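ok so heres the complex, five chains, lmk if somethin looks off
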Amino acid sequence: MFLAKVVGTVVATQKDPKLAGLKLLLVQHLSLDLEPTKSFVVAADSVGSGTGEVVVCATGSSARLTEVTDKLPVDAVIMAIVDTLEINGAIKYSKSPEAASVKS
Amino acid sequence: MFLAKVVGTVVATQKDPKLAGLKLLLVQHLSLDLEPTKSFVVAADSVGSGTGEVVVCATGSSARLTEVTDKLPVDAVIMAIVDTLEINGAIKYSKSPEAASVKS
Amino acid sequence: MFLAKVVGTVVATQKDPKLAGLKLLLVQHLSLDLEPTKSFVVAADSVGSGTGEVVVCATGSSARLTEVTDKLPVDAVIMAIVDTLEINGAIKYSKSPEAASVKS
Amino acid sequence: MFLAKVVGTVVATQKDPKLAGLKLLLVQHLSLDLEPTKSFVVAADSVGSGTGEVVVCATGSSARLTEVTDKLPVDAVIMAIVDTLEINGAIKYSKSPEAASVKS
Amino acid sequence: MFLAKVVGTVVATQKDPKLAGLKLLLVQHLSLDLEPTKSFVVAADSVGSGTGEVVVCATGSSARLTEVTDKLPVDAVIMAIVDTLEINGAIKYSKSPEAASVKS
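and the predicted structre for the whole thing:
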């Protein structure tokens, strides 16, 4: 899986019938310093994520194993919204601003 | 999935029998600034897309899950034609020129 | 799928038993200008292609869906020999030299 | 599979229900010189690995074939903790410091 | 599939139970000039290959289709040992030194 930041939304009416109702988001890969990179994908949303959130995306056939993507022609899915990232013993990211300030 | 622009067509008569009737298009990857990159793939078309359109492509085994690609030896499929792209709160692309001018 | 040029042959006697009789070719990725790149793969041949031909290759589990690669441990297959490539409205490649000179 | 070093932990409460109880770790790709590279992924842990350990990760659908990841929407799993790496005839890494000093 | 050279061995005792007895090798990608590149993977061995040999590796779900890797959590397998490579009409590699000197 990869870490990404939700940065946008794709609207498409002309599409495979099975995709009706599925939310397609633009997610930008993050570096280990949590900086957005130039790389991005279109991912289906399975967890109600919104712009600006840091998420975990699964790709390939595994992207079809969430409840909302079963048997759909999608190869990337947001399957978790990150609360906290701990890297080399320090909290590098926390969704709640208060907690983020409590770094180790 | 990735964002791409349809830029060409592949014609092939000598091919796996199951591919008969399938439209194979050349699609060029787009950057997050919606500029074409050097990267491209050959994708099966499942939605009737044409040259110049911005599309969403699924890859891998998921590319076989549209109605027209079921069980075919294809690893990329155009599964949606983009109407609108909203990135960081602004409409960055709209298929209809009129709507595109109404940026936020 | 990707566009490639057939550039060589792999001969291997010590291999998984299921691969007996399968032709393994070296195919070099082509750029959108149809120039060979540094990237190449070993692909199973399902269409009787030969050195110098421009082909379309499928990868991953889809590579096992041609008649000759069913259930084999292969992740890339040549599934079509290109007759014509039309890019941005012009014929950029044609297998028959005569037709190639008739560009739009 | 790829060699990686465990460098962090991902905590996420809002996620696909099937992921409950699964440990998600940040693992950084290693070069052949065993130096960490800029590339990293989020991998499920199936072997009880901890920060600083050198591990082997499987990706794609194969990541769902360990006991703890069966049918889960994950595309990367730590499936082994490395004891020893022998490269070109020399022991380049050993988990136990004593053994590491006995290089050939 | 890709061409690679076997350069090392991975020893791991703490691993997914299904991996017991499987040989894990380090294989380095080769360029079309047959030079080792910086890229490498850990691959399961299905053909009894040894250090220094030039091999063909399959990846993804196809890596599980050899006799020794059935249903295992592995995403790369050595499925053939190369005898001869013919590129652009010339023998560029031959496992037996005598044959290698007979270039076209």
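quick notes: Chain D touches chain A at residues 7-19, 24, 26, 28, 38, 40-43, 51, 60-61, 63-64, 71-76 (CB under 8 Å). thats all i got rn
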